[in-house]
Amino acid sequence: MQDALVAGIITGNTYALIAVGISLIFGVADLINFAHGSVFAIGAMVGWWLVAKQSWPLWAAMVGVVLVTAALGLAIERVALRPLVNAPPIAPLLSTVAIGLILDRSSELIFSPETQRFSSKLDTNNFSIGQMRFGTLDLTILGVSLGSVAALWFFLARARLGRALRATAQDRDAARQMGVNVGAIQGLAFAIASALAGIGGVLVGMYYSNVQPSIGFNAGIAGFTAAMLGGLGNLPGAVVGGLLLGIAESLGVTWFGGSTRQLISFAVLVGVLWLRPNGLFGSSRIAPREPLTGTFFGRGAAVRLQHWQVAILGVLAAIVLPLWGNGYHLQTAGIVVIFAILGLSLTLPSGTAGQVSLGQAGFFAIGAYASALLTTEHGWSFWLALPVAGLIAAVLGGVAVAPALGLRGHYVAIATLGIGAMVVAVILNWESLTHGPLGVFGIPAPELFGRSIFSARDYYLLAGAVLVLCLVLNWRLQRSQLGRVWRSIREDEVAARSMGVGLAGYKSLAFAVGAFVAGLAGSLLAHQYSFISPEVFGFQISLLALTIVVLGGMSNNLGTILGAAILVGAPELFRPLEDYRILAYGLLLLVLVRFRPQGLLGVQ
Amino acid sequence: MTTLQSEKRRDGETEGRTVGETVPNGLSGYSAVASPGVPAIGTGPVLEVRNLSKRFGGVWAVDDVSLSVLPGQTVSIIGPNGSGKTTLFNLISGHLRPDDGEVFLLGRRTTGHPAERIAELGVARTFQNGRVFGNMTVRENVLVGLHTRSHAARPFARLRHVPILRWLSLLAELILALVRPPRVQQEEAAHESEVDRQLGRFGERLMPRKEHLAFSLSYANRRRTEIARALAMEPRLLLLDEPTAGMNPTETAEVLDQIRVLRAEGYSILLIEHKLDLVMALSDHVVVLDQGKVIAEGPPAQVRTDERVIEAYLGRSRETLPATPAAPTPRIRPNGTDERSETASPSSTSKLRLEHVNAFYGPVQALSGISLQVGKGEIVSLLGGNASGKSTTMKVILGLITPRSGRVFMGVEDVTGRPTAERVRRGLASVPEARRIFPEMTVEENLLMGAFLRGDRAAAREDLDRMYTLFPRLGERRRQHGGTMSGGEQQMLAMASALMSRPQGICMDEPTMGLAPILVEQVLETISAINREGVSVFMVEQNATLALSIAHRGYVLQNGSIVLSGRAADLLADPAIQEAYLGQRAAP
Q1: Cα(B374)–Cα(B351) distance, rounded to whole angstroms?
Q2: Any idea what the Cα angle at residue A31 is, between residues A415 and A40, rounded to 5°?
Q3: How distant is the Cα of A537 from the closest Cα of chain B, in angstroms?
Q4: CB 3.0 to 4.6 Å from B183: which of A89, A186, A327, B152, for a disulfide?
């Protein structure tokens, strides 16, 4: 118990380092930096490499990490933010998401994705107060993190540039009128925040005595959660938030076991967004400070395909490919279709209603598990399990998004990310129902007229039929009065309310329809793979789904299929490039947001 | 219900017309189900606002306001910038919750109801900046306005506000949208013709653009789309927030005609408008707000001549000034008659000069061909009513926006397109609008921000002490956060911060706005004192009388152009200036 408290305080301190950075960037740039966790991971890896591979002394490695991550921060500001000053606010957000992906993948390519042993050679157990035992390592971590935060505080309070930084956060225009170069100050904020994250990475690596490039995602979530807990933009709040979260996690792990750590983080994140979006220290009655209103993207007419063009594509997909394609092509095409359906599940909530979702993997997982468990454990037929999986996903989805309904812009993205991750964390932890990390085996292939559908061709045609149904669903809804109501919410929530449009109901309806479609896709995936586990439904799947619709053109159904073909199909056909696939997603997203934000086929 | 409607119409019947042609309920069958449960109220007020108050931070944006709109009446709310007009609209339409007071719509208490409920009860509004749905066509925009009138497509209306059960209503709506049975199709067809009817009001302006995306429309057409969208709701009360903002005189005259038609059709209208000609021509009743309070109300003719109203717009005359207006002297000239006389005027070795500046916000032209200059040691004041382009001019000078064409000079140096920091380094300081100090920094830190670009720290410290002598209040509060001080103190702080950079010229954006009279006096004294030390002052002000009382020269802006300029004393005596603010006096 007391050991758990010590552990909580130590990890809490490192969370505080991440959270302070996130808050700092939010304050100055009005942006939630999704690449922050990745910077943290890079800090950890660079620190490990300098200490373990280059045999630098710890202090020198720390200085090296600070320099590398600060430079990285400057680069992120230059690439993700500067060019997008006049773009809709969702653009820099997606841009940082893309950079996070690129950083994670680059780090895996450079340092290998393996877990590496990171020994600080410091004692871990040489002191005790009463029953509390701790070591030089703990004191070092505590000292460095507290020292860094204190240095930041001193800088902000006393230094001329620190004052300019605070002034910029409080009133950008007024600061500019005082002669402050707010662009440079913004770069400075990114550099400082990133350096703090880098330090945090090294400390966490030392604490667990191992590091790996993929730790960034969870660290980032913990950082957001801590920053939200303290109130975004509130630096002392971020420190307190970090400590509270660290202690809560540590106690939770002691009481409920190690796999609950993430669940606690996600639950706190979603809970804070729902109940106190201004954080513990802000007033809950005032609407949260929102970096953005209207969420949407580039304006421009959609590319309209002619009927004969669509017909030719349809003939190619429905007749030519099944008749003449080889097994490998058809198998790839089957997976493309499943991900196209997953993409279509975002069309209504994100494209039409404008609620950017980074948690679609959660509903995908619900559909897959529902269908898998109903068929394996309850003997249901696939044909019944498929729609029921969709409905279960729809009901749970419509309810689960409740915390996101009152939010806007970046907050919606963060909330859905938390909701999606929480769903997967629940699946992981609810072992009696889902078999936890073991997953579900032996999911049967569908049967039709007594014949099992498992050839690549049959499965492709089956998935294709579901895809067509989902297309019809989306098309009909988009063209109805309901579709117009959703679009009015996307365009201007305030004006929409003035027309009598109740936001919460219509938003959750859009999410529920999206979850239904994602559930269908999940069911198809489960019966195609015949084995599923929580690992299949990571954050990268949510991101892939969003990238697919962004690439094709948000709310453009045919564009979504094109997006899936490019993002899922092309890499499958070029196996040798597999290592670079995720890197390519990231680069593609970054380039798209910068140069063709409306997607290949445009927004409808 | 139907009785109510017809009575309403009878009340508003002011011009000859055939019933059924212009009646809002042209599509029979809608009104009967429009809002079940609204009590029949006969000729009671459509809207009644009682002692409504709303506070932002420490400021009462709306302070104890009461007003009512009778069926068929057009009531206008006027008042200077920041007087609380739009906040009042937001309170009535449910976008803000009042801190105190009550709102009744059609006899039903709606205080604190969310905006969508109030819309369902029949309140439609337009927004100051024209909030159309940009990526939707004009037709689709108006169709969204028909949302509250979709009954076939949105069943179970009664369940819509019941927790959990409202999902029945939502799911039914979803299924009907997928299936689209004949009843829904009929309703959709009726809505399409309703769209045509509403767009038809604007004739050739909108009809040919029915399928255009709203973001591609001209500013005026966006406003028209917004009005058509609001009218499609068949509202019992129409809230129009500056429907003619950004429109030229021809377009304004069109809107005037259209609102006249609405009046004739029996609509009850609450109007915010700055073009007083329009207000005078349209209103049955005018309410004047200043600093959140109702300072006058009554029939237009009476309000038009009310001393307090003229004062609220033009400012209280100060004792130092000649009270009687004299005939305009030749020294005042309408803009563009003689460019040279001024540039050659002896006192001006110009510190700051704008030449033919044109500036835009998106498609909207904010400034057209502005030329002006500020000489060494001068106080020059830029005057004009709301939305005339004053703040934009200031932003161009400071380099916060870049003009599309034209040049900005500091001394002989062309600084067009140069960053703000460079202009500050060259000796330009600013007092931002609305006392924008840094609220979470102490007084001393705020002052040090003013000296941000100065390299001489020791001298800056000395200046800090000088400011504390000049403004003793600031000295007492040097450790206090800026945001916790009173408005007057904040204004002092903003000015002191500007002085900390030892500027040669200061730009001030409405330095007296929202201050109590005694503080206004202090601020003006301070500006004079600053000027006596040799600093040129360029001052943007709505309050003409005050500004001209200390200025040497002045320019008057209207709709983004300079319409008058000349010596302060002459301008002050010119009746034309009152017209620039309050519009032409109505013809007898």
Answers
A1: 6
A2: 80
A3: 29
A4: B152
Cα B74 off chain centre by: 19
H or E element in which residue B428 lies: strand B428-431
A283 and chain B: CB distance < 8 Å anywhere? no
| Residue among B178, B177, B160, B161 at smallest CA distance from B169 | B160
Largest CA distance in chain B: 82
Task: Report the residue of chain B nearest A182, measured CA to CA.
Answer: B421
- The region that residue B332 occupies, defined by phi over 0 for left and psi between -120 and 50 for alpha, beta otherwise, is beta
User: Which residues of B are less than 8 Å from A167 in CB distance?
Assistant: 438, 441, 449
Would you list the DSSP string of A513-566?
HHHHHHHHHHHHHHHHHS-B-GGGG-HHHHHHHHHHHHHH-TT-HHHHHHHHII
CA distance A181 to chain B (A): 6
Give the DSSP letter of residue A77.
I
A contact test, residue of B113, B128, B137, B147 with most A CBs within 10 A:
B147
- Whether residues B119 and A483 touch (CB distance < 8 A) is answered with no
Q: What is the DSSP string of A416-469?
A: HHHHHHHHHHHHHH-HHHH-GGG-B--PPPPEETTEE--SHHHHHHHHHHHHHH
Q: Which residue is associated with the tokens 């991900």?
A: A339
Among candidates B25, B246, B166, which has minimal Cα distance to A504? B166
Cα separation, B210 vs B208, in Å, equals 6
CB A542 within 8 A of CB A420: yes
Q: Which of residues 344-403 of A touch B (CB under 8 A)?
A: 398
Neighbours of A479 (CB within 10 A): 13
**Cα dihedral: B434, B435, B439, B442 (round 10):** 180
B183, containing H or E segment: helix B182-200
**Which runs of consecutive H residues, i.e. helices, occur in A257-290?**
260-275
* Per-residue pLDDT, B339: 40
ipTM: 0.84
The predicted-structure confidence for A232-290, as pLDDT tens digits, reads as follows 888 888 999 999 999 998 888 888 877 788 888 888 888 888 888 777 876 433 333 33
Q: Closest approach of chain B CAs to the CA of A353, in angstroms?
A: 12
**Residue B316 near residue B348, CB atoms below 8 Å:** no
Asked whether B583 and B314 are in contact (CB, 8 A), the reply is no
Sheet strands side by side (includes B123-125): B123-125, B237-241, B268-272, B74-78, B285-290, B293-298
pLDDT tens-digit profile of B517-574?
A: 677 787 888 888 888 888 899 988 877 788 888 889 999 888 888 888 888 888 887 8
Note whether A481 contacts B143, CB cutoff 8 Å: yes
HSE-CB for B294 with a 13 A CA cutoff: 19
Secondary structure of A572-600 in HEC code, one letter for each residue: HHCHHHHHHHHHHHHHHHHHHHHHCCCCC
How near does any CA of chain B get to the CA of A291, in Å? 19
B-proximal residues of A, 148-207, CB under 8 Å? 160, 163-164, 166-167, 170-171, 173-181
Cα nearest neighbour of B151 on chain A: A481
Task: Say how far apart CA B369 and CA B371 lie, in whole Å.
Answer: 6
B140 and A487 Cβ atoms separated by less than 8 Å: yes
CA A552 to each of CA A174, A559, A597, A602, B555: distance values in angstroms, whole numbers, following the listed order: 40, 4, 10, 7, 53
The beta strand positions in B350-404, using DSSP E, are 350-361, 364-375, 379-384
Confidence bin at B170 (pLDDT 50/70/90)? very high
Plot region of B424 (φ>0 → left; ψ -120 to 50 → alpha; else → beta): alpha
Q: A321 with A333: CB under 8 angstroms?
A: yes
Task: Find where tokens 């009104």 sit.
Answer: B31
A498 touches chain B (CB under 8 A): yes
